[in-house]
Please model this.
Amino acid sequence: MVKRTRRNGGYSLTEMMLVVAILGILSTVGPLLITQTNKFFLMTTTKADLQKEARAAMYVINRALRQAQSNSITIDRLAAGQPFYSRITFTKIQGTTMSFHQNGNQLIMTQGTNIKILTKNVRYLAFNFPRSEDLTIVSIGMTLEKATYGGQTKALHMASEKVRVMN
Model:
């Protein structure tokens, strides 16, 4: 015959202390884990956005530069407050004058009278001729930077790309 013992309906002091200890650990670790996960998500999303913007801007610049007349390319800066070599101006084979330049944190494309902002996250933009004897190759360097959280930023440098002017 099996004897069953009856237990009262309450919790023991040991069980209560274990529950309080576990809840205390979870309440201190939980917010830190959530904060770190949120920061990681924001940094990853910002990096992906910057890469997308940089690729799109480089594509537009490359495509336009390939159609430039090599004897019409001028590299300078727009104003005294801008970085050196932050503007390129050229004439396309169709006769349209184009310009790409940095104005503050914006990368601006000007084609004739049309003005288009390619990105609003430019930190640094530079154009140059990597070889002085060959003015048909233009090198482009671009750094994009975007605010993330708490006054911090994420920067992405697009590797300098050399573009051969075809005309």
